[in-house]
Structure formats: C-alpha cells, structure tokens
Amino acid sequence: MYARVNPVALFDQFGHPPVSSPASVPTASPPVQADARAAAPHQRRRFRLALVVGSGGVRSVAVLGFIQGLREAGLSPDLLVGCSAGAMASALIATGVGMQEGIEVAATLWTADVTRQSRRGAVAQMLWPRWLGFDGDFSLRRDDLVRSRLKQVFGDTQIEHLPTPLRVVATCIETGDNACIDRGPVVDALRASIGIPFLFAPQHIDGQRMVDGFLSDPLPVSAANDADLTIAIGFVAPQPKRIDKPQRLLGSITSTMTNSLMQARLAAAQGQGQQIIAVFPEFDRRVGLFDVDAMPHVVAKGREAAHQVLPQIEQALARQTAGA
User: Fold this and answer.
1) CATH domain 2-6+46-323 topology
2) Across the strands, what pairs with 3?
3) Residues 276-323 pLDDT 10s
C-alpha cells in the first residue's frame, strides 16, 4: 500500500506555524467522486509529467489555478503527488474537478473548526500519563469532523481507482521515514498526511502510525522520481513579523527547519539527476493556514505562476521528446 522514500530522523518535536484568525465555515459542496467503474488500477509505468504539491495550508490550493493554466496550454500531469494540505489539493485534481468546483470543495476542508474539537480527558492524560495510559496514539483533538468532511468529498474512493494516479506522502512517526501511499482509501491516506502530531492521533496504515507528511518532506519530489519531468509547487513557511510570544518563537523555529529541509530535499533530488522545475508562488498578502477567504487570490496567483513557467515546461518536454 505504501513505499518508503527516504529515511528522515531530524525532528523530535515539530509543529505548524501559528494559525491565523479562523474564517467562517462555508456550506459543504456535493461529494466529488471518481468513477471507480470506469477506472482501472494504475499499473507501474514511466510517467511523462508529474506535479508535486507541498505543504502550505490554504496556499496549497494555488495548484488549482496552476493546473488550470496547464490545461489551457494543452498540458496535464499524468502523476500527482502531495503531502499535508498539498495532498488534499492533489487528490481533488486527481478526481478531475475543475478550478471553480475545486475552490468550493476545498473551502469545506480548510476550516479552523476541525482543530477545535477537544478530546475529553486529553489534558488529564498529559498530567498523569502513567495512570491514564499515555501512548503514541495520544491527541488533543478529535478527528471525527475532519474525517467526515473528507468522507463527504471523496466517499469510499480508492486511490488506485482515481482517473489520474495519485501518491500521498505521510510520515511514519515511529521511524521518521516518509511513506508514499498509492493504494487504499483516499480518506485514510489524506487523514494520515494531514495529521499534525499531538493535535490529532496518528492514522494507522499497514500497522504503522502515520502523521503529517510535512514532517519528513514538505515538498516530496523524490516520490515522483519515476517521471521524466517533475513540476514541484512549493511554499516557503512564513516567519512571524515579530517574536513576542512563545508560540511565535516556536513558529519561527519550525519555519526555519521546514524551509531548510525543503531546500535540502529538493537539492538532493536534483543532484541525483531528477529533472525538476520548482515553482514557489508569490502572494500579495499574508495567507494563514485556514484563511479560506484568501482562496480566490491564492488560486489566481497559482494560475499566474503557471503562465510564467509554461515556456520552461514546454521546452523541457520538447527536449525529452527530441531525445526519445
């Protein structure tokens, strides 16, 4: 169901940057379902064009605009890879949704209320771990809301039955390895890849505890190393404007580690000969992890980024065709 990519054991304690003020919860869109009857399980093959989407919270939906820009030029990836919020955006694209529908559906998934469902007894479990059975499945929050939202969107769809091949990258919390999940329920894979440790309990897959993919690889290009050309959509973790609270100091440390790991992974893949075009969309405003009101702006910037790199993509594909 999943394959190891590259081992990582860099982090003992890690978390996401501080969350901005939450936006209101939009009305859920109708479920997006892949046609499992028409789709067949994907065979292992060489891919021509892969699109990898990194961790970035709401910013990850920029790929909806980016993919629209590619489609307008007659291009479409034949492999999608994502981790954390980028995995959810990639999964939406893999179902075949259009840009506007993707925005509407994404708005039901990226809401701050999914992180507010306190788990009864969690604080007591931290205070008296030996008596109350603290273990690797501990969480401060319940995950029933986030799981139900994912279920509304993806239903019982299996990854191997999606119209476009999808690989979801998560982290095995016990080993630090990143895992590339390419089979099984879409909901389970996404729940694993977005599971912030300590906040949510790990998702068990094949007997392993899986958590947020960004811990081991915030831009998992190595999961697409069997593609002729990889387009990597990455997002630089923001630094706080000032450090006047403990959580902002933690956010600064986290952002520094995330950005360093992302650049190191990217350089390592390129050093091994992987053909990668890295794109880091720029935004005219600060976009928080759950800033769903910024989605139209984020998607527009993604489309703009696609138009800027299209000549480079077309030239790279032309060189590959000529050399085949």
Assistant:
1) Cytosolic phospholipase A2 catalytic domain (3.40.1090)
2) 180
3) 999 999 998 888 878 889 999 999 999 999 999 999 999 999 998 887
